Amino acid sequence: MSETTRPGFPPKDVTTLLRLEGIVVLSAAIAAYGSLGGNWWLFALLILAPDLSMLGALRGESFGARLYNAAHTYALPLALMGAAWAAGAGEAVPFLLVWVAHIGLDRALGYGLKYPGLAHQTHLGPIGKAKREARRLANAS
């Protein structure tokens, strides 16, 4: 059984669909940001900000994975967006759209939610060293 089809890792057609979903979310977030008159310099400055959550790994791999996952799920920025909109704090929405765009970009590139305790493994399959090793093993057989 290959690295990307064993239980816990989706087959290629599923990851392709999830990556396409990421492109759609990224595109929609960018379009919404532009329609709200967002500052594109600010967008460029903030697009990688959610990756600061990787610093949680300094406290431990499991904690780091949980913090990274919290910052890389659509639920939190979308819930905050709804709350901001309802509270009349619409000025927060462009910042939250940048966050959503970041997650969409990550998904489009194949970066998923991390498995605690499994370095370089995500819900979209292996990344980094694990992906290179999986390719090496597939080519060797």
Structure summary, number of beta strands: 2
Strand content: under 5%
The residue fraction in helices comes out at 55-70%
The overall pLDDT average reads 87
Low-confidence stretches: none
Globally, the shape reads globular
* Tally of discrete structural domains: 1
Counting helices, strands and paired strands, the structural category is: mainly alpha
What oligomerization state is this entry in? single chain
| Widest β-sheet, arrangement of strands | 1-2
The tally of helices reads 6
Instruction: Work out the radius of gyration.
Output: 17 Å
User: N-to-C terminal Cα separation, in Å?
Assistant: 11 Å
Largest sheet: 2 strands, antiparallel
SSE pattern? HHHHHEEH
